[in-house]
Design goal:
Helices cover 74% and strands 2% of the residues. With 167 residues, it is mainly α. The chain has a two-stranded antiparallel sheet with strand order 1-2. Helix 1 runs parallel beside helix 4. The longest helix is centred in the last third of the chain and has 47 residues.
């Protein structure tokens, strides 16, 4: 059982390391978004994709180990948590498990905060881009022409703008 828990802790440590790399990239992404460097952003996203795939692989391994541990500790597999595993372990392994749990939780929380901030920065950039395009194309604004009766011609509205929308 101790070897199983040690391997489980190793997987959690590896997950924490990958999440720390994602955290570094999230911080770099924030600065890149602020400076509007699209080429650097593409590089960051490519690296994130690789790391996310690594997390998925580690999650599969972690889940397999947690299911084995659940069997050993007679815990319902659908209801297994790190705290429940820690209750079934004693000594240094329990301390290591609780330590890695807290460290991983902290890193994941920071990563979520960065991701929320980056999402808002991206939304702001998109709104600005949309606003700029609308100004250039004068989207929705028409130049009205009148027929002989003095009414606006419905079929002959002309678009006014710096750039034709059809471009």
């Amino acid at each position: 059982m101790d070897l199983l828990i040690e391997n489980f802790i190793d997987i959690l440590s590896a997950e924490k390391a990958v999440h720390e790399e994602l955290l570094k990239l999230a911080a770099k992404k924030k600065e890149t978004l602020i400076k509007n460097k699209v080429d650097v952003l593409n590089d960051i996203v490519s690296k994130e994709i690789i790391l996310v795939n690594n997390v998925k692989e580690l999650e599969e391994k972690r889940e397999a180990f947690s299911n084995e541990i659940a069997k050993e500790l007679n815990i319902t597999q659908g209801k297994i948590t790190l705290d429940k595993i820690a209750k079934g372990v004693n000594g240094d392994l329990k301390q290591k498990l609780l330590e890695i749990k807290n460290e991983l939780s902290t890193v994941v929380k920071k990563l979520a905060d960065y991701n929320d901030l980056n999402k808002e920065l991206i939304k702001t950039h998109l709104k600005y881009t949309y606003f700029s395009l609308n100004i250039m194309t004068q989207s929705g604004i028409t130049a009205d022409t009148y027929d002989n009766s003095g009414y606006v011609k419905e079929d002959n509205k002309a678009r006014v703008g710096l750039v034709d929308q059809k471009v």
